[in-house]
Amino acid sequence: MTAATFTDTRGRTPVVRSRGHGANVLRRLLRNPVAMIAATIILLLVLMAIFAPWLMPADPYATSMLKRLKPIGTEGLPLGSDELGRDLLSRLMLGGRLSLFMGIAPVVMAFIIGGGIGILAGYAGGWLNTAIMRCIDVLYAFPSVLLAIALSGALGAGITNALVSLTVVFIPQIARIAESVTTQVRRSDYVDAARASGASSLLIIRKHVLGNVIGPIFVYATSLISVSMILASGLSFLGLGVKPPQPEWGLMLNTLRTAIYTQPWVAALPGLMIFITSVSFNMLADGLRSAMEVKQ
Amino acid sequence: MPDMQTAHSPMIRLHDLQVEFRVPGKRVQAVNGVNLEVGPGEVVALIGESGSGKSVTLRALMRLHPERTTHYAGTLEVAGRDVLKMGKRELAQLRGSSVAMIFQEPLLALDPVYTLGQQITEAIRQHAPVSRAEARARALRLFEKVRIPSPERRLDAYPHEMSGGMRQRAMIALALACEPQVLLADEPTTALDATVQIQILLLLRELQRELGLSIVFVTHDIGAAAEIADRMAVMYAGRIIEQGPAAELLTRPRHPYTRALLKSRSEGAMQKGRRLDTIQGAPPDLSRLPAGCAFAERCAFAAETCLGGQPEETRVGPEHSVRCWRLDELPAQGGPVQRAEPVNG
């Protein structure tokens, strides 16, 4: 048992290859055609939303009594027009901004807050876990649609309030996932093994717990984006989210519902956009999940 | 027991060690007064069935049990230091650098999201102030030492990318990362198939000799224990009921439980149609231990005296001791213990 056993006798320094876990997941994800199609669609939607002001063929706020509710393919109105004669294509493009934002932002905030709460509860265990998780359960007991509507209603209409209420809706969901995954990891042999090699709690949380927990939480959060979009659309539909004349898919679906008998295809378009986006996010989440399944 | 002391002071000294788990409404006495000494460079096997307290004893050596619910009593010294009095920092210092552990299932004991190289490097850098490159160079030498083929490439492999035997070698490399003096092995060969088992045992033996390690080897496989151990200790219901030099214990077992355990192995001259001897019944509930000998209710030789209290440790050889009330009344040793039981033909 001497230090000499471990001294470098050949004096060579091995090359350190960086091939992280994240890179591996990405590589497997890139090989998954369904996930890649979904990712491409999401990328296109995001680009469309970002560059909408420059890409829009017409002014999305310009109303015209003459051009009300034109069908798809009308001259100058490729996707028809809404009940106030505004160009639907332009409105869908610009509306993507708010819709995507309302889909992603609450989930990101809930991911940070809920994930933190869940990991803390899961790692602490004992009475602290019980205290935190029972509080979370109180929020979790409400159906998410009801909770979102109630909170938005109480806070008042508006984008910020809708954002806050959606975040509150998602925190318990993400916290519960984070807690259960963390508890599982905390009881795992590799955390025991890390403790047996003298690792401090902080190091165990930072490396072993976070490393193993972030993946599943991230996957779950990704699948929540579509739910968030639909809930946000629902809030707008009820007049609790975005206010007219701002374009947003949920709100557009609401106002166009009166035209469902006269121009059903045009009226369905905002719904179609919501559908495509949420399906794409779900597919991507699915692909991420299988890409992260390292353990056979 | 002054003559049981080796020339050097022991690496591990347990005296009347008790480990109790306290959960609401229940007290589980997993370890009830274990006396054990392990000298430097000595390999001791702890043998027993599930729930006999062997793994609990092993984990207690590093105080790995949850602090809140576990209650220790007695003496627990590693390398002359009292583990039960250690603070958090001392404990972290002890773990890994003085005492290291290898686990039963390496696939579960290695973190799936990091490469083996990353995990070993992390362990090295926890205890030694070395650069990343230096730590990696050490990790590479460890991989060579445990004879992992193409070690450079394997350092960048994830646990799931390797075979069971290679994973256990990597686990051993990880345990040796900080040059410990004591290696605790918790059934390290149980999850492996037979041919790999023997390779791992030989490797452990070789490393033990080369590095002068003290090893505590927990197993229920007497064959594996015989392969590696200098001394053996048989545990039952949280006590060591017999301990002695491996060869002596295997050829001249004294305690009825040890004898029954040795007879219930399938190895040796098993004839077709002959029934495997088993020990009837199950070990006692650790939350309701009997006042007397815990094995009495399953013992073929139990008598009234056995139920009274705990048998004392009796010396039967220079390093051989047994806890049994009826030690002197048992059938003579040498010949196998016969039980009045018909043999099915």
Automatic annotation (TrEMBL), chain A:
<feature type="transmembrane region" description="Helical">
    <location>
        <begin position="100"/>
        <end position="125"/>
    </location>
</feature>
<feature type="transmembrane region" description="Helical">
    <location>
        <begin position="262"/>
        <end position="285"/>
    </location>
</feature>
<dbReference type="InterPro" id="IPR035906">
    <property type="entry name" value="MetI-like_sf"/>
</dbReference>
<feature type="domain" description="ABC transmembrane type-1">
    <location>
        <begin position="96"/>
        <end position="285"/>
    </location>
</feature>
<dbReference type="InterPro" id="IPR025966">
    <property type="entry name" value="OppC_N"/>
</dbReference>
<feature type="transmembrane region" description="Helical">
    <location>
        <begin position="34"/>
        <end position="56"/>
    </location>
</feature>
<keyword id="KW-0472">Membrane</keyword>
<keyword id="KW-0812">Transmembrane</keyword>
<keyword id="KW-1133">Transmembrane helix</keyword>
<feature type="transmembrane region" description="Helical">
    <location>
        <begin position="145"/>
        <end position="171"/>
    </location>
</feature>
<keyword id="KW-1003">Cell membrane</keyword>
<dbReference type="GO" id="GO:0055085">
    <property type="term" value="P:transmembrane transport"/>
</dbReference>
<keyword id="KW-0813">Transport</keyword>
<dbReference type="InterPro" id="IPR050366">
    <property type="entry name" value="BP-dependent_transpt_permease"/>
</dbReference>
<dbReference type="Pfam" id="PF00528">
    <property type="entry name" value="BPD_transp_1"/>
</dbReference>
<dbReference type="GO" id="GO:0005886">
    <property type="term" value="C:plasma membrane"/>
</dbReference>
<feature type="transmembrane region" description="Helical">
    <location>
        <begin position="217"/>
        <end position="242"/>
    </location>
</feature>
<comment type="similarity">
    <text>Belongs to the binding-protein-dependent transport system permease family.</text>
</comment>
<dbReference type="InterPro" id="IPR000515">
    <property type="entry name" value="MetI-like"/>
</dbReference>
<dbReference type="Pfam" id="PF12911">
    <property type="entry name" value="OppC_N"/>
</dbReference>
<protein>
    <submittedName>
        <fullName>ABC transporter permease</fullName>
    </submittedName>
</protein>
TrEMBL record, chain B:
<comment type="similarity">
    <text>Belongs to the ABC transporter superfamily.</text>
</comment>
<dbReference type="InterPro" id="IPR027417">
    <property type="entry name" value="P-loop_NTPase"/>
</dbReference>
<comment type="subunit">
    <text>The complex is composed of two ATP-binding proteins (DppD and DppF), two transmembrane proteins (DppB and DppC) and a solute-binding protein (DppA1-A5). Five orthologous SBPs (DppA1-A5) are present in P.aeruginosa, which increases the substrate specificity of the DppBCDF transporter.</text>
</comment>
<dbReference type="InterPro" id="IPR050388">
    <property type="entry name" value="ABC_Ni/Peptide_Import"/>
</dbReference>
<dbReference type="InterPro" id="IPR017871">
    <property type="entry name" value="ABC_transporter-like_CS"/>
</dbReference>
<protein>
    <recommendedName>
        <fullName>ABC-type dipeptide transporter</fullName>
        <ecNumber>7.4.2.9</ecNumber>
    </recommendedName>
</protein>
<dbReference type="Pfam" id="PF08352">
    <property type="entry name" value="oligo_HPY"/>
</dbReference>
<dbReference type="Pfam" id="PF00005">
    <property type="entry name" value="ABC_tran"/>
</dbReference>
<dbReference type="GO" id="GO:0055085">
    <property type="term" value="P:transmembrane transport"/>
</dbReference>
<keyword id="KW-0472">Membrane</keyword>
<keyword id="KW-0813">Transport</keyword>
<dbReference type="InterPro" id="IPR003593">
    <property type="entry name" value="AAA+_ATPase"/>
</dbReference>
<keyword id="KW-1003">Cell membrane</keyword>
<feature type="domain" description="ABC transporter">
    <location>
        <begin position="12"/>
        <end position="262"/>
    </location>
</feature>
<keyword id="KW-0547">Nucleotide-binding</keyword>
<dbReference type="GO" id="GO:0005524">
    <property type="term" value="F:ATP binding"/>
</dbReference>
<comment type="function">
    <text>Part of the ABC transporter DppABCDF involved in the uptake of various di/tripeptides. Is also involved in the uptake of phaseolotoxin, a toxic tripeptide inhibiting the enzyme ornithine carbamoyltransferase. Responsible for energy coupling to the transport system.</text>
</comment>
<dbReference type="InterPro" id="IPR013563">
    <property type="entry name" value="Oligopep_ABC_C"/>
</dbReference>
<keyword id="KW-0067">ATP-binding</keyword>
<dbReference type="GO" id="GO:0015833">
    <property type="term" value="P:peptide transport"/>
</dbReference>
<dbReference type="GO" id="GO:0005886">
    <property type="term" value="C:plasma membrane"/>
</dbReference>
<dbReference type="GO" id="GO:0016887">
    <property type="term" value="F:ATP hydrolysis activity"/>
</dbReference>
